[in-house]
Amino acid sequence: MTDKRLFEAYSLGPITLANRIVMAPLTRNRAGPGLVPSEHAATYYSQRATAGLLIAEATQISAQAQGYQDTPGLYTAAQIAGWRKVTDAVHARGGRIFVQLWHVGRVSHVSLQPDGAAPVAPSALRAQTKTFVNNEFVEVSMPRALALEELVVHYPVLLDADFKTWNAYDNRFWPDKYLIDAQGFIRYQQVGEGNYDQLEQAIQALLREVNPALDLPSIMNPLRPEDYPEVLCYRPTPDLRGGLRRGAPVERGHRRHQWRRRAAAFLQRQFQQQCGGQLQQRRRGRYECNGRGREQQGA
Question: Across residues 86-90, what is the average pLDDT?
Answer without folding.
Answer: 97
